[in-house]
Amino acid sequence: MSSASSAVPLDAIKFSVPYVTYGQNSRNEKPDTETHKANLTDIIERIEESIKQSNSAKSLYRVESALSSARALASQAKQYAVLFGLKLPKLPAIPVLKQDRREKLTAFDAERQSRTDARTAARAAQWEEQRRLDALSREEKIAAWRAGSSARFWNMTGDGFAILRVTGSNVETSMGVSVPINGLAGAGRLLRFLTACKNANRPYRRNGHTEHIGNFTVESFQPLLDDKADVSPTGEWILIAGCHRIKWSEVLSISSEVLAAIKTTPEN
Length: 268
Hints:
It is a single chain. By secondary structure, the chain is of the alpha+beta class. The chain has 2 domains: 2-97; 138-263, no CATH class. The chain contains 7 helices and 8 strands, in the order αααααβββαβββββα. Strands 4, 5, 6, 7 and 8 form a 5-stranded antiparallel beta sheet that branches. A hairpin with a 2-residue loop joins β5 (212-213) and β6 (216-223). α2 (33-56) packs antiparallel against α3 (60-83). The termini are far apart. The model is unreliable at 227-232 (pLDDT under 50).
């Protein structure tokens, strides 16, 4: 269809309609009155749809585009009727864009552009910060992240382990994940569970009973594996949840802040 349309000379009369033949005439070579009626009905329906879009749109560009489409379709309907000697049905009334609505649409577009510009500037600043921090040493990156940097570091420590910080009522990881401290799947509840496991020297592995932290499932909490045994009694305990591997010493580094956040929440 696209190739056929492109092959027609630009100054030729042409219409975009759904039917060449319609109904009982569908096996004939030429369109009949029934076909023309169906095509005019389709054009009118598209005019009504364009008017509907112009009434609901909030952007000046979209309103003007919809009204322009409606006017072009109305002109096409008239030309179609004249060419084929048809009685033109009553066409929908195309509204006029009044000045008061034009001003409201213009104000909406200006506000939206302002928000877009602000988001673009924020993203640019974030990327600039990321590039700056990427050039720092490992120790400088960790210090900057703990101080509140919004950049993400997938392997900041260089050993595959994530680090943690407390921001408000959430615990954040260096991999860009944030989980609440309070609640059934909160960091506070999990801290109590892990502390109990560690004090009892009882490793945890997901098997029927499931522990959660935010949207993640805790896979295990046990000493670091080595080459000589399934569990190394002298190794540091490691929490594995989703794609995160977190050392127990890292958990302890934020434990006081987590416990303080729990104490300040009445429901806990």
